[in-house]
Design a protein that fits this description.
Three copies of one chain form a homotrimer. By secondary structure, chain A is of the alpha+beta class. Chain A has seven helices and 16 strands.
Chain lengths: 268, 268, 268
């Protein structure tokens, strides 16, 4: 009996109480703080965590990469509010998404659809009117719709009260390595705070004895930054599961003047 | 009876438990974290939210604009600690302010006085000795006075124990649009993270058929960023209730090389 | 009896529930948020505070200075996670440290050893296997070891379950003023967000009538920034207990073009 009750409860409120935020709002204007105010006004016990507010403006690939490599560190039932939203105020839809035992809220621009696809999740379209939005701005749906939805969900409102399943969300593609003339060709997909050049190459792309070259230079594959010679870049498997080009206590991005999108090829 | 008890309680502790912070301390030195440590030492259950720590150094207008457009998103009874404080260590007073069902703490430099004036609030001068401050630094009243006051208020200390009403706080003026030769003339009052040029023009300043021009160029008035042609600036009503000059997925500030204080006139 | 029970409890869980973070991870990539996710997954009631994530990359002196001047503002029993970690993935040890009634977790690179030495604390080496780490990345021990340790400690795991005392941690030296030809010579040890040049000179280094000169220019010693003439630098005792060279509403670092490590001498 008791078990059943608990199970009913957890079916009713499957949320951990953690709400994370990932935006390109920056830190200057109070936009992120305002979203937290809205969540707390509806869910006073919510525990709020910033993933980042420094996604490069309008950069959906960076948003997707950071979100999909960050959310699994949170406990199941966490609710992730993603507001990189170049289409704010236009007709693009508002989404709620369940995937990998986590929950996501944000605009329909490919980031949430991608997470749903990668994790066989479900996607729902939010109807702002059903959510109780009477007057939304056309420039800040993070405050007027997404934070409100997060707060109300944590306060006990069921997602079915304001959203319905859809099957055609936008799905963002992030380049995968491909085979070109018998060689695996990857590319730089992200540059982090340390100037590490994160490629889309994973362990399965580097066979034994194979190596990655920049021009004529073969990159040493090392297992820690400390193994690198100073000023000489190398390859290391990073915490997201990708190989990154790194320098010891320096920025590979500055040293090599490489950017997101540049190709990196694997030699067998 | 029960109602009366509750009402007495809420008269005793009118705080929501939320404390927000708005400073120009930046993120580098731990100054903001230290203020939170002080609040939590006195009020372990406080819920802390950063509005921003990236107000341009000593910029009271930016502080005021961000604060007055952010605090209403928090629930009533929230306590907002504002420490943009070029006069720290001088004779300027320390204020506690009640306005619009919110509470504010900070130096007497116009920001809190303005919020009190706009919202018909009350202002009180804090006496640090009565607050229990025995030895304050002359460079960090955010830690030594304002965070301490916030923590003690949330812990149950009544504001009357350490502050007394005043009627002459500094009141910051932010330029309002004015009429020049029969035309409404506004100006840029803030530039946000996206490079949007926020003017002081509101809906009442733009009559039907009127428009805003930059030189000879008439700005399109749009209802979402997506309606803008790329590279062509337009005017949009933003989430603070002001018209802003914006670009689609770009920075109007960079494109137009405009700054805070530059004039923008409305043509009838 | 009751007293004994309480005392046993507090011996069992001496933590305040506050976890602070001090890293050089920056705000862009979600690394800091991920550490919080790990802590909360193990200790749902933890209260998390950022000291800073903007320590200059790999800069242990800055990390040490900020940490030792920030942690005392938190209540006793707080747990401070310090991850400026150029040696991540190498053989350097993982430390848990008790000092000044606070707790610290981080790599063995001198920062925690210094805090232990200054405060006569105790240092313990963490064994990741005993902590339950099965598969750590080689690039992000903040997530895989330090946040996990923090979460498990707050959840009730005793530090003795995964760490053993050591007596030889690395101890970082930050330059102290010294006597050169009968004069006290200090130096700039940190530059803060406002461009204040923080020296290692304390009250004991400036006798009555003595002064600090830059070249021929004698710096006025003032008790608040407001006493300074605009554009003219002066000396002020700051909130960390050091004398700093400051400008009124301006950056002394920009005005004087001085850097960390430059000498400042006291004239008697």
């Amino acid at each position: 009996m008791r078990c059943e009750t608990l199970s009913t409860q957890s079916r009713k409120n499957p949320y951990s109480g953690i709400v994370t935020f990932l935006t390109d709002f920056g830190a200057e204007d109070g936009y992120a703080g305002v979203m937290k105010g809205v969540v707390l006004a509806h869910a006073p016990g919510a525990r709020l965590v910033d993933i980042t507010h420094c996604v490069p403006r309008f950069n959906l690939c960076a948003a997707a990469l950071i979100l999909e490599n960050s959310f699994p560190s949170f406990q199941a039932g966490s609710l992730h509010v993603m507001v990189v939203d170049p289409g704010v105020g236009s007709v693009r839809r508002h989404l709620f998404c369940k995937a990998a035992a986590h929950f996501f809220i944000g605009p329909d621009n490919g980031v949430l659809g991608r997470i749903a696809e990668l994790n066989r999740g479900s996607v729902f379209e939010i109807d702002p009117a059903l959510l109780g939005v009477t007057k939304a701005s056309n420039t800040f749906h993070g405050r007027d719709i997404y934070a409100l939805a997060a707060g109300k969900l944590l306060a006990g409102l069921d997602r079915s009260a304001f959203s319905a399943p859809i099957t055609d969300p936008e799905v963002l593609q992030i380049p995968e390595p491909c085979e070109v003339e018998g060689r695996v060709e990857g590319e730089i997909i992200h540059i982090d705070h340390f100037g590490n050049l994160i490629t889309n190459l994973r362990t399965q792309h580097l066979g034994e004895g194979s190596c990655v070259c920049l021009g004529e230079e073969r990159l040493a594959i090392v297992s820690s930054y400390s193994e690198l010679e100073e000023g000489k870049p190398g390859l290391i498997l990073n915490s997201w599961g990708y190989y990154e080009i790194a320098c010891r206590e320096g920025s590979a991005a500055c040293l090599l003047e490489m950017r997101v999108g540049e190709k990196v090829s694997v030699k067998p």
